[in-house]
Amino acid sequence: MEDKQREQLGGNPDWMSRLPEELLDVPLWNLALPGSHDSMSFSLDVSSPVVRSESCFLRLTDRLFPCCTRPCVYRWATTQLSVLSDQCDLGVRFLDLRIARKPAGSSKLFFAHGIYTLITVKEALDELAGWLDAHPKEIVIISCSHFESLSDEDHAHLMEFILLLFRGKLCPPQETPTLRSCWSRGQQVIVSYDDQELLHPGLWNRIPYWYANSPDPKKVITYLEGQQRQGRPDGFYVTGLNLTETMFYIFLHPFQSMRTLTLNSLSLLLRWAGEQQPGPEGVNIMCCDFVGMSEFCSLVIELNYKLVGGGCRKPPASSKISAN
After folding, report:
1. Can you give the pLDDT at residue 319?
2. pLDDT for the residue numbered 310
3. DSSP label at 319?
4. Which long-range contacts (CB under 8 A, 24 or more apart) does 14-19 make?
5. Which of 308, 310, 306, 297 is CA-nearest to residue 25?
6. Residue 3 pLDDT
7. Mean pLDDT, consecutive 10-residue segments, the chain of 324 residues?
8. Cβ pair 39, 97 in contact under 8 A
9. From residue 278, how far is each of 31, 142, 206, 217 by CA, in Å?
10. How far is CA 232 from CA 114, 198, 202, 275, 308, in A?
11. Which member of 37, 135, 146, 200 is catalytic?
């Protein structure tokens, strides 16, 4: 089936505004929020060099055989297919942004996952700001991390840009955000910045991300259940349903990609996700690859109705997406 037919865009653009009254005063870290893993990987540039933080072996291979190395990295590093506004329309409310500075060229900042993106940080966040203006009761968490090759000056400029762009929409870390409290103050954005030394007081600390670092969905589930037995972190945290390839796995499966690996595993991962419950002892943010190619977002959103009336309430049928 064609990509455009399989992408289920436009399914849950205003789902937060439609949650029942009983959930409006629940802290956001006790709700179930869909997230996209490596949110900007749809924009990877197959002609760009491998990022400096990759292994010496991969960087050497890239220098010697770029025509082979870069398409392979592109195939395995691409985990999303659509722009941020389309992801938000699907229902995504957590964006995983891995920021990088290219080794040569202008002072513009980009994103990276193995290789660099075509879209800049400014372009992506400007697009997101426009989406938020059109959806004033939706709240998005932005996780800024990795910061490949950024200088202190780059960090300062980036934080200044974020603070100016979102201004009154920012929810500060001194508060316990709920839907009602954010709506009353016009707050729509929570920014997590993964650099404790340079962190601005208006931005949140790093959000813990549970991921199994395995290409096997059964091992992912076993890992996540082990983490759950130890107890969830305070505040926001991420349950990662994303798979992770290894060099050995890629060598054994030379004609696969992250897309085929994910799609072959989604049914098992989504079945497990559907059994979860949000709340003080439950899941919070759940991240997945290729969020537009399954019912993932609708499934995570529905988990919130388990908190209402003994779990009897269901979201309106119009808010659901049917999977192909």
Report:
1. 39
2. 59
3. G
4. 14/135, 14/137, 14/138, 15/91, 15/138, 15/301, 15/315, 15/319, 16/93, 16/137, 16/138, 16/139, 16/179, 17/135, 17/137, 17/138, 18/315, 18/316, 18/319, 19/179, 19/304
5. 308
6. 43
7. 42 97 98 98 96 90 92 96 98 98 89 97 98 98 97 96 97 96 98 91 96 96 98 97 89 88 97 98 98 97 92 48 34
8. yes
9. 6, 20, 21, 21
10. 30, 27, 25, 17, 21
11. 37
Q: Which two tokens stand for residue 287?
A: 């991240």
DSSP assignment of 80-116 equals --S-HHHHHHHT--EEEEEEEE-SSS-S-EEEEESEE
SS3 at position 211: coil
State residue 248's pLDDT score: 82
What distances in angstroms separate CA 221 from CA 83, 194, 226, 279, one per listed residue? 28, 26, 9, 19
Among candidate residues 113, 155, 157, 200, the one labeled active-site is 113
Q: One-letter amino acid identity for 52?
A: R
The two structure tokens encoding residue 169 = 């929409």
Q: Report the interhelical angle of 258-274 vs 217-230 (nearest 10°).
A: 40
Q: What is the DSSP string of 146-198?
A: EEET--HHHHHHHHHHHHHHHGGGBPPTTS--BHHHHHHHT--EEEEES-TTT
What the block records as the tokens of 45 is: 């540039």
Q: Is 113 a catalytic residue?
A: yes
> Is there a contact between 149 and 97 (Cβ–Cβ < 8 Å)?
no
Q: Which residues contact 60 (CB under 8 A, 6 or more apart)?
A: none
The amino acid that residue 19 corresponds to is: L
> Do 43 and 79 meet the contact criterion of CB atoms below 8 Å apart?
no
157 is known as an active-site residue: no
Which contiguous run of DSSP H or E holds residue 300? helix 296-303
pLDDT of residue 311: 54
The residue type found at 124 is: A
